[in-house]
Amino acid sequence: MVYITEDMVRRRAEHNECEIFSLEEVSLHQQDIERIEHLDRWCRDLRILYLQNNLVPRIENLGRLKKLEYLNLALNNIEVIENLEGCESLQKLDLTVNFVGRLSSVESLKHNIHLRELFLVGNPCTEFEGYRQYVVASLPQLKWLDGTEISRSERIRAAQGLEEVKRQVSEQEREYLKRRAEEKEEAQRKAAGEETGNNEKKEGFDSDISSTVPGSEENKENQEMEENTKLPLRSSELDEEQQEREFWHTPCSFTPESRLEAHRHLEEKRRAKEKEKEKKKPKASRTLITADGRVMNVNEAKLDFSLTEDEENNTIVLDLAVYRHMDTSLIDVDVQPTYARVTVKGKIFQMVLPAEVKPDSSTAQRSQTTGHLVLTMPRAAGEIKVTKTVPRPPRACQNTHGSSSHDNTRRNNLPERLEVDHSKHMALDLANIVPRQSTNEGPLEASRTAPPASSGHGSSSEGLGGNVWLIVAIRHE
Fold this sequence. Notes:
seven-stranded mixed beta sheet, elongated
């Protein structure tokens, strides 16, 4: 049985940003709904409600929808028109192809003073003699009935012979209700017979289990007969086809029970087909390497493992907990430079390695006590090995303040920056490049002492030996 759920209503309210409290229109058709509920509490502002092509047997839980203007309940299992007095704004009601046989229930719509259109086509009551005249006289507010406009003259004629029409309608209604009660009893007997037949089939199946046990003599004889005859179709398939043909070709009355039976039969067939498709559907292949060449980690066998790095021997060791009592012939090992793949009874274990290895030098050993598989894979020769770095002690420096700041920088693991000590900055005075000659001295001699620092522009020549030609760029300010 399908019920109206909040998720179902929200999915149908995409045009209202999935908000249901302010919803004015909702379409719940073709959902196999078997009961109307919750809508009068969740969607008080509904104006249009589509519920056609479902399995609703009764009109209920709609009395609080004061703003409802259009209600579509075509192609359902409704037998009585009821519980619509609270829908004060109802203007159009569609009950096409239902099972309304109690025509007198139309009078319950007298309280819906705004009702203008009513559709009852395809209901048993439309076959009653005087049907249209009775509806037109009972509902003076109607303007259209079954898509045909009600003229003023037709309304006057219907009101004139109303008493005679009511008597005829009541007689036909009693006959219909009597026939309907017989149909319900027949449907109940049929359902009870089907249940007993199913139980008998189960009991017979249980009693014949011994005949289907592999290895028994009778079963062997049956298999030989089937192999010799080679029938094109199995008896079960023939039975199913015959049952399907009988179900659809057996005449039956058009009742809510027969409609429910057909629906359930189709639902069972659909589920059986889905199960067959799931069985026949091949399992999706496991992606081991993606299209862009990326290797995936896979553990289909769900085995425990450990991956370690032996720094002394420069190897990578993979310990895989293979089943202890499993034969080694069921294990296949494939080592590649960047990954290792082990197939255990058709199930794949694949692991991406942290470094490049030598496949040709790798070894695979299995423990005779635990059954574990150990792969020893040496690193490649060109692989850069990450070693632990030991911090160097700080260099001695003449400036005590500078060394302490350097130590603090190292200690805090901050990036090192090159700093210039302004006290060591030496600038050359361009005016004193050539030493002046005193009167008491001989020829020009290079001054062996460094020129005094000045604020002029130039470059330092400290540390350069011999004669140095210094190219000076003069900046004009």
